[in-house]
Amino acid sequence: MQRQLELPAAVIFDMDGVLVNSNPYHLAKWIEFLDHRKISYKEKELPELILGTRNDAAFRHFLGPDLTPEETHRLSEEIEETFRKAFQSHAKPLPGLDALIRECHEAGVPMAVASSAVRANIEFVVDALGYRPYFQTMVSGDDVTHAKPDPEIYLKAAEHLGIDPADAVAFEDSYVGIGAVKNAGIKCVAIASTFPIERLAPLADLAVPGFEDVNLEKLRALFVAEGESSSVAR
Predict the structure, then answer these.
(1) Which residues, including other chains, have CB under 8 Å from residue 89's CB and lie 6 or more apart?
(2) N or C end of the chain: which has fewer CB within 10 A?
(3) Distance CA 89, CA 61 (A)
């Protein structure tokens, strides 16, 4: 049965690689962290291991499963402070994002952030962009028990917004993030800011090079083309 929504009930954004091009700075902080501790890693594999993933999962991968919650918290505070200092002067929205945010706001479409990042990072980025007035809720990795690709973070954002997840659209840039959106039953638009669009397209409902290729009409179309295969916008 095709859905006939005039507009999405809500639009939900991941943060890193979606609101801002912060992933190179996250990679740099992890490289510094691992090199300082002489922990071996394959640099080509690092993006898929850490981007979109909560810090506790990444720490367990590199430091082992016996890390205590207290030590995980301490290391997370240390590594994220490094990120915020490095990224502070570079925080700006991805091209085209500002227009979509304003279009959604003017149309009365509620918006939210659902990011695996720690809450301090989300507030830092959202405030740096001046977007706090536009978001009805912001759900962080600190607010959920299960990390992406588990749908908990997106289901919680939908609950806070008071909408049916099936009537919402979410933007993601990572494989685990897309998995979380789809597992929540939410329409997913993949932004190819971090990984190749050809690899993202089969996983999402729509894959685009950037926000310049998205508007509310394209988001509405996701609900009237149900059952069709994922597409790539170029």
Answers:
(1) none
(2) N
(3) 31
Token code pair at residue 222: 């996701």
Task: Say whether 64 sits in a helix, a strand or coil.
Answer: coil
pTM over 0.70: yes
* Residue range 41-100, pLDDT digits in tens: 999 999 989 888 889 989 999 999 999 999 999 999 999 999 999 999 899 999 999 999
Q: Report CA dihedral (210, 26, 69, 116) to the nearest 10 degrees.
A: -10
Domains (range + CATH), the chain: 10-21+92-232 (3.40.50.1000), 23-89 (1.10.150)
Average pLDDT of the segment spanning 205-213: 98
- pLDDT-derived band at 229, boundaries 50, 70, 90: very low
Give the Cα separation of 113 and 138 in Å (integer): 5
Per the document, the length of the chain is 234
Per-residue pLDDT tens digits for 196-207: 999 999 999 999
Give the model's pLDDT for residue 227. Answer: 47
N-term to C-term CA, the chain: 28
Q: Which residues fall within 8 angstroms of residue 179, CB to CB, at 6 or more apart?
A: 148, 149, 203
Burial label for 123, CB within 10 Å (0-12, 13-18, 19+), is: middle
CB-count exposure of residue 105 (10 Å: 0-12, 13-18, 19+): middle
Distance of CA 89 to the CA centre of its chain: 21
Q: If DSSP codes are grouped into helix, strand and coil, which group holds residue 147? A: coil
